[in-house]
Design brief:
By secondary structure, this protein is α+β, with helices and mostly antiparallel strands. It is 45% helix and 24% strand. It has one domain (3-109): Threonyl-tRNA Synthetase, Chain A, domain 2, CATH 3.30.980.
Length: 123
Amino acid sequence: MPLQKQSMAISNAIATLHREHYGRGADRVRTTIHADYVVTLMDDPFTPAERLTIANGEFQQVRAMRTMFQDWMRDSFSAAVEEATGRKVKGFFSQVSADPPASLEFFTLEPATAGGPETANEN
């Protein structure tokens, strides 16, 4: 699968998982595939309740809940990356930010095998 299609497949899968479990997806999702890692950035991923919580100075509560959710979803997110890239995910890291409102999913990949899937993308 070409890298652009891999990136799109990962963005779509992660956005779908967020919509299914949060009831809302991010406004924009972008995925970049590099030699040994994949980065997915989601702009404005927060639900109305989370936005209100953040506006009232309780971002740490939102971060704690999101971190717990990301831990639970690790296998599903990793499976989406593995399916699109044909490579095994060896590490998963997730972070959210209130300003700017964003979420970042970072996956490290097992080394590519000779003759295996393409390994770098700068889109």
